[in-house]
Amino acid sequence: MSHPSSWNEEEFAHFAPHPRFGQRPRRTGLNPQTNFFSGVYLHWHSPEDCRVSNTAITAKTDKQRQPTVAVTHYYDVKRLCRDCKRPFLFFAVEQAYWYEELQLPLEADCVRCTDCRSNARELSSIRTEYESLVTQEALSLEESVTLVQHGLRLVEEQIFGKKVLQRLAAQLNQIAEPLQQTSATTYESLRTQMQCLQLADYPNP
Ligand SMILES: [Zn+2]
User: Fold this and answer.
1) Inside any domain, residue 154
2) Ligand 1 centroid to 136 CA: how many Å?
3) 183 with 104, same domain?
């Protein structure tokens, strides 16, 4: 090896993989340390213990969105996912994309692995669709099924609680007959899922 590194590949074997960058750090050999006199400013959310050495890239400070103090280099940094608790890397190249292309403020930090981020996005779109269906007066059978499916998923994820579950049970009762005729298996699977959730204990109302 041309230069020794302070990390080995094995350390990252259990990291949640990024669909594009994988789970191993991207070695660049660049390893600047904060030095105000030579103008090196690292991100406040990238303290030394979470930086992976020799992975820094140079930032385009003029592209960052009105920073109080521009960040001059990004490192691959170790994070613990807020949702699934797995460690993952917030890659230097992702940070460049966030702060320079997407123009996110430097305050924005990555707290979820990519799996949980896409799960969060999926849930938010499910919730939007659910909430629009709930306000509609007359629903088709298909829309009612979607409403119950989305509602159950949101209860499962503990976004909604018992009250919504009761409403969904009533909704499923209402469409029981026509649904059994068109798709008995859909009805059965919704009813089973509903019963499992009714037996569970939910903290939120
Ligand atoms: Zn996660």
Assistant:
1) yes
2) 34
3) no
Co-location of 17 and 107 in the same domain:
yes
For ligand 1, the distance from its centroid to the CA atom of residue 12, given in whole angstroms, is 15
Q: What is the tens place of the pLDDT at every residue in 10-56?
A: 899 999 999 999 999 999 999 999 887 888 899 888 888 999 999 99
3-class secondary structure, 90: strand
The whole domain housing 160 covers 116-199
pLDDT in tens, 89-115: 999 999 999 999 988 889 889 999 999
What is the distance in A from the centroid of ligand 1 to the CA of 185? 32
**Residue 16 DSSP one-character state:** P
Would 204 be classed as within a structural domain? no
Q: How far is the CA of 110 from the centre of ligand 1 (A)?
A: 11
Gap from CA of 91 to ligand 1 centroid (Å):
15
> Which residues have a Cβ under 8 Å from the Cβ of 118 and sit 6 or more positions away?
none
Question: Which amino acid is located at 169 in the chain?
Answer: A
- Residues 11 and 101 both lie in one domain: yes
